Q: What sequence folds into this?
């Protein structure tokens, strides 16, 4: 068995009296799509923020490709090959689609022509309609904005991609489209993914393996079927109000 691409060990992150992430440990295998679910407030985004260097965990260790990255600043972690998308899609208005993706490509190259080429490649990879590469953000749909977010992250040439509630706000049909895009990107590039969702359905069809967080802790791990039938998971979901 190959060495996991990411190892999270006993990570703790507190906000005042709240333990947002409480002794969380898990491995991510190279090339997999790992689902991470849990009700609102479970600590999923905070965990992503610890992995990407937005927050420094108070305890624990995070290793990426065999190297400790705990507490490194976000730009250093991005340079090592971890990219993310943000929970709140912030639709841009005036910028052109390609320019928005070039922001990602410019992490690896200072050459604007090369960055444009990589941005176009990333957009093509996610299946963004070619005739809209040069339109402004105000002219594209929410699903297309999500495709742009994904392309921007891919243009940084990551080895690991963290997706935070990427399906939020989409209609069921659009969610299915996005799920097949993610599967195709994973298959064609080998980029490892952690897909965070509080809606179970989207991740169930996407990931081979799932983790469940509740009140800062990991409470379950297994195949989508195992997790969906786990009484602890059902209780965690029933015990919280859906958004
Ligand atoms: N910057 C912050 N300051 C204070 N509390 C926070 C902050 N970010 C998150 N929290 C709290 O940490 C807990 C976990 O939040 P979060 O990681 O956003 O959960 P999830 O992404 O699973 O919905 C919640 O109780 C939330 O209110
Ligand atoms: Mg969140």
A:
């Amino acid at each position: 068995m190959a060495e996991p691409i990411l190892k999270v060990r006993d990570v703790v992150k507190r906000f005042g009296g709240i333990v947002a992430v409480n002794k969380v440990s898990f491995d991510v295998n190279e090339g997999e799509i790992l689902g991470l679910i849990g009700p609102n407030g479970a600590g999923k985004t905070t965990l992503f923020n610890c992995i990407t260097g937005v927050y420094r965990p108070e305890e624990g260790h995070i290793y990426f490709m065999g190297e400790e990255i705990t507490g490194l600043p976000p730009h250093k972690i991005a340079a090592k090959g971890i990219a993310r998308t943000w929970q709140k899609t912030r639709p841009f208005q005036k910028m052109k689609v390609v320019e928005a993706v070039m922001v990602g490509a410019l992490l690896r190259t200072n050459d604007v022509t090369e960055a444009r080429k990589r941005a176009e490649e990333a957009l093509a990879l996610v299946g963004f309609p070619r005739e809209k590469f040069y339109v402004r953000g105000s002219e594209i749909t929410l699903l297309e904005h999500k495709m742009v977010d994904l392309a921007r992250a891919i243009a940084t040439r990551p080895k690991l991609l963290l997706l935070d509630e990427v399906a939020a706000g989409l209609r069921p049909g659009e969610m299915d489209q996005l799920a097949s895009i993610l599967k195709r990107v994973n298959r064609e590039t080998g980029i490892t993914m952690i897909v965070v969702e509080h809606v179970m359905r989207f991740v169930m069809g996407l990931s081979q393996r799932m983790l469940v967080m509740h009140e800062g802790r990991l409470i379950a791990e297994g195949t989508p079927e195992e997790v969906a039938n786990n009484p602890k998971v059902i209780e965690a979901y029933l015990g919280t109000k859906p958004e």
Notes: The first helix runs from residue 44 to 51. The two ends are 40 Å apart (CA to CA).
